[in-house]
Amino acid sequence: MDKQLPTAGVFEGREHQLPVRIYYEDTDFTGIVYHANYLRYFERARSDFFRLVGVSHTELAKADTGFAITRMEIDFKRAARIDDALLVRTTYDRVKGPRLYVSQRITRGDELIAQAVVEAVCISMDGRPRKPTPHMVAALTPWFAG
Q: Which residues pair with 32 in a beta bridge?
């Protein structure tokens, strides 16, 4: 990997792991991560998962394909603070028609910070549901739960 490029994370088994450092800009006036920023960390991890398995958002757009989150359930367990080194852990669990089901956790060492259950729907650029592209299904299938 080119050391000048930002990391897209690594795979440990079927789990994608993306390191995230907490900066001042991520926190509120108390020095604790503002709750909405966890959604950004989860989004980055889902995108980098795709990047590492060879699914490009640019190529998906050319194929008239995008995503919309239709459901996200988040449990906040602990507070993250400035300078924390976190790990966003993502697994793609299954695909059913146009829907992708994803499980995500954010940890600080062995400590669970937040976890999410995500349902995304594959859509055309005009917002209509569509099945994922054959390339996307082929790239993700090895990573789905058995």
A: 81
- What is the spatial distance between Cα 39 and Cα 41, in angstroms, rounded to a whole number? 5
Query: Strands, E, within 51-98: which ranges?
Result: 66-76, 85-96
132: its two tokens: 């994922």
Catalytic residues: 28
pLDDT tens per residue across span 50-96: 999 999 999 999 999 999 999 999 999 999 999 999 999 999 999 99
Contact 108, 114 (CB under 8 A): no
Euclidean distance between CA atoms 95 and 74, whole angstroms: 20
Please return the burial class of 114, using the count of CB atoms within 10 Å of its CB with bins 0-12, 13-18 and 19+.
buried
With beta carbons less than 8 A apart as the criterion, state whether 119 and 99 touch.
yes
Separation of CA 7 from chain center:
14
